[in-house]
Every structure is written in structure tokens, then in C-alpha cells.
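Re-run with default settings, no changes from the original entry. Doing this only to confirm the output is reproducible before filing.
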Amino acid sequence: PQLRQRVAARAPSTAQPPATYMLRLLLASDVHDDTSAIEALRAWLSSHDLLGKLDAVLCPGDLTTAPAASLDAQEEARYEAAAQRVLDGLGSLAPRLVFSPGNHDPPRFFSGFGGGNSSASTSNAHARSLSLAPGLWLAGWGGSATATEEGVPVWPGWPLSEDENAAGYAQLQRALRGGGSAGASFDGPGPGDSLLLLPHCGPAGAGTTVVTAADPNNPSSPGMRRAPILSGSHHLSALLDSRLLQRQCVAVVHGHTHAGVGLSSLGRVPVINPGSLRFGRRFGLLTLRREPDQWQLESLHFHALDGVSPSHGSSAPTAASLALSPPVADAAAACGEWRPWLLAGGALCLAAPLALSRLASLLAWLSAGATGYSGVRAGNHVFYDPGGSETERRSGERPLVYSPSRA
């Protein structure tokens, strides 16, 4: 029996590999009450035949514009109603909506760990982990960290303290290691599962959390700041620094930093900031693939609806876009006017190594008259052997010997 057990353990598995899964996700953040931008986004999705074909909407917070201060009951009710209008609008774009509350969202969205406007199709991911697909979990954390400019705080962390943020990410790490998650609902992801992080505030050290624009709300506005605003969370960076997260985390999708729209990375983990749907009219389309048993980023597209901000007029259902894998199909046509310069530059790049090689040979020949040594050509470079050896340095490389007698 023991032998049969050992043989069975070594026998190859006949089970079929898991099916290939694809997830198409709409990334829309920092709406700040702008339901007109959601309608413009709906028109854009419809014009691109994407409405009804997305699996979920991910929103990393700031649904409304509540101040970073305590609210009375009437104010809180007003901001909750405003946030609910945004949730209703975003939730109508796909069968499922997952959001993490931002520092401008009502305080109740942070209470009860995942409470506040969760429903069958809408999930508040704050301090929770949720299953998105087989083998893929999402974990969220709301609020912001203190942002600084030259070491001076410029935006307060709200509504959670730095200690609370540190404790929350520590709970997530313990849950991933199988040690439980007292005080939060991060239980769920297993050792072999992939994880998608949805914080409102991105990690410190990522370019998507650094504000260099003169206008922190408008990435299209010209001008640079004398010193950048650093808005990222050091506690989230410390979490991503662990080997566990570097192995399991397929991506981080965050908001908060309106002018930090784009793609960055910490280690091997992609860090994505789709930008603000209100300030900049930005959003993203993310596709994830599982094949056969590991989730990975398949494609990422950034788009900007016409109209930089609500004050610039209504948005038409057209958009400028930047695609990262696969490339834009008409990229060659888009840069047609630069084609002569590209061809000239390519020819120069091809001719330069040959010219340098000839120059090196000439210098070697001139020097050989005084000292005598041999040279070995390796690709477009010439290496010199002061001893005059004709031994080839690497297999397949033909030695070029320079000496007074052979000149």
C-alpha cells in the first residue's frame, strides 16, 4: 500500500487545466459628484460597443466632495445621497460595481468594515476581500495618507489616522499568510490565488502618486511645480515590498492623485491610476487574463473624454486614448508626418556602428605601429589584446590581428 501511494503521488495528474478566464474592467475614479461625466462615459462606451460587455466597474473612491471634517447628521445625509447618485450611475455601466471610499466620501462608508451602500451588485471593498473570479480576489482600503510638499503637510490624511492605515494593511498581510484578520474581513485569498488591490490612496514611491503639475487637479494644464507633492501611502508601499505581495498581487488600482494618471510599478507589481473622471475626464479599461492558473495583466488603455473639466463645457462621446499592450492599431498612420525623420534617424543608427568600427580599426592600426597588439571584433565593437594573442575571445568571433608586420 505504501508503494502504491508513492507511485500515485509521482503519477502525472490527468485533471484538465482550469479554463481561460478574461475580465474586462472599467476603471473610473474621483467622480466628485459629476454625474454628467458618467453620462458622457456611458455614451462613449455605447459608441465603442462596450456597453453591456464589461464584467465590472472598479472605482477607487471620492464619489462625492465631503470635506475632511466631522459632519452633522444633515450634512452627512446630503453627501450620502450625492454619493449614492454616483454609485447608481457607475453601477448601471456593468453588472457589478466595486468601490473603495475616498477621503471625500461620507464617514459611514468606513464604518462596519465594508458597510455603507453595499448591495447585491455594488460592493464597498473597504477593509474587505471579495472574490472577482476563480482564483482572483480584490482587497480594498479607503481614505488617504498625509500628502507633503518639501516635507510640509499640504493635504491631511482622512478619515483614518496613519496608525489605522498601518494596522489595516498589517491585517491584510496576516490574512494572506493565513494568520487571520481580526478587525477586518480580509479572509478569503488562498496561497495560490491572485490579488488585485483597490485602495483610494496609491503607494508612496510610485509615479502615479507624485504631483508635478502646477494644477494638481488638471493633468492637461501646462506648468510644473517647484517641488512635487508626494501623496502616496508609505504603509501600502511597505505591504507591496513583501515577497508575498510581489508574488500574488496582479495590480494596484488607485485614485486620489488626479494629476498622477498613468501606469507605474513597485517591483513587479503594476500600479495604475486611471485619473479623475471629473478633473481631467479620465478613465481606464483594464483586461485581466487567467491562463492556465495565474492571473496577469492582459491590456490597459487610458482614455480622456473631450472636455478637460465641467467648466469647459459638456463632454462629447469621443476620447483621446493611450493604449499599453496591445499598441494602437493606427499608430503608424498617426505618425506619418514624422516618417521621413524616422527613416533618416534609422539610417543614421545603422551607419553609426559601422563608422565607429572603421574608426576603431584605424586607431588600432596606428597604435600597432608603436606597440603591436591584436584586436578581436565582437559585434560592432573591437576589443584589444595588449599581448598580441590571436585567440578568439568568444566562440564564433573572428580575430582581427593588428601588428606592424601585418599592416
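Residues 1-17, 308-318, 325-338, 364-407 have pLDDT under 50 and may be disordered. DSSP finds eight helices and 20 strands in the chain.
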